[in-house]
Amino acid sequence: MDRAKTLEGIKQYFDIEELACDHLLEYYKDNPERIWDFLDTGFLADLLVIRKGLNKPMYCNNHSAGVHQRGLRCNLCELVKEKNRPYLSGHVLGKAGDFTVEGMTAAEARKQIKLLADKLPVPSRLEADVSWLHIDVMPTPNGKKVYEFKA
After folding, report:
1. Is the pTM of the predicted complex or chain greater than 0.85?
2. How large is the average pLDDT for residues 61-86?
């Protein structure tokens, strides 16, 4: 998997501002491109295949609307700070994002992604029974290419 080619492709669809929390954007305001280094290549490669395959705009964070923690999260994010146990989700590891797909429900998007399974460069997990589209590249059981899980 060629990281440079993956980055070139994914940047056609997503800005780093959309994939990272507001704390990271503020910390790296002088060099926001640096944040791409924290996002997993496999996650970005799968996200690129999914975005192209669904052929619809997908949205992650929307900072102007107050949505900050759907992509890469840091230790200052409320969803992380409120945990009273160790927290190592795909979001803090740069391997996950929560998305809204224009014109599709999350359930419809999950169904379509399952049809794209053979095209995904690495196995992906999808969170089941939620109103958003959670995609991550954490390990899947039995090497399934697309695995739906309940949090």
Report:
1. yes
2. 86
